[in-house]
TrEMBL record:
Pfam families: Flavin_Reduct. This is Flavin reductase like domain-containing protein. It comes from the Bacteria. Keywords: Flavoprotein, FMN. InterPro entries: Flavin_Rdtase-like_dom (IPR002563), Split_barrel_FMN-bd (IPR012349). Transmembrane segments: none annotated. Its cofactor is FMN. One of its GO terms (molecular function) is FMN binding. Residues 19-172 form the Flavin reductase like domain. It comes from Advenella kashmirensis W13003. Belongs to the flavoredoxin family.
Length: 207
């Protein structure tokens, strides 16, 4: 079935995009306001765009005509931390997805502790197996109601148990036990069911 995306209402293009690009990693973003108020919120319009230099992209929609606290904090301070969500912390992540007023500390509401970052002011979520310390590089205003954040990853924390070889930077992704977003509201998936498929080398003699 074909969908003409330019002919559909925004709510329907959103549903389609969120239902077919699967699974989507979850950026559990921690920011701080200029006066030190913490904010934590999950975003699934997120991914890695470049490994060298390390760059991530984060899509943040507005609440109506009002920018979300995470976006305002990133714009004003240029810093944030992306934590990835393990299965053991899915309930806490869901609490931080609540649309609390700006003065509410979502980390406190979810009972989450933080650890200090190395290069940015916002801390990282203790218990998250991966944390990416990010600095704003470019911001793209799509339509006045949605923004794309491109950020350089300046530091990376990985759970020791998942590090196979520090010198070679080998990580066992299975040990991270991450979750991702699936289609529709409230649907998630585990990343436990993985498989390996070797890349086929090109053979000029077959041409």
């Amino acid at each position: 079935m074909y969908f003409d995306m330019q002919a559909l209402e925004g709510k329907n293009t959103y549903k389609l995009m969120g239902s077919v690009v699967l699974p989507r990693p979850i950026a559990w973003v921690v920011t701080q306001s200029e006066d030190g108020v913490w904010n934590a919120a999950p975003f699934s319009f997120f991914n890695v765009l470049s490994g060298d230099p390390p760059v991530v992209a984060l899509g943040i929609g507005h609440n109506g005509d009002i920018k979300k606290d995470s976006l305002l904090n990133i714009e004003r301070t240029g810093e944030f931390v992306v934590n990835l969500v393990p299965a053991s912390m899915i309930e806490a992540m869901n609490i931080t997805a609540t649309e609390y007023p700006a003065h509410v500390d979502e980390l406190h509401k979810a009972g989450l502790a933080t650890l200090p970052s190395e290069k940015v002011r916002p801390g990282r979520i203790a218990g998250s197996p991966v944390a990416l310390e990010c600095r704003l590089w470019k911001e793209i205003d799509i339509d006045g109601k949605r923004n794309i954040i491109l950020a350089r990853v300046e530091g990376l924390h990985v759970d020791d148990a998942a590090v196979i070889d520090r010198d070679k930077c080998y990580i066992d992704g299975n040990k991270l036990d991450l979750v991702g977003r699936m289609h529709g509201a409230g649907w998630y998936t585990h990343t436990r069911d993985s498989f390996q498929l070797a890349r086929i080398p090109y053979n000029p003699e077959e041409s």
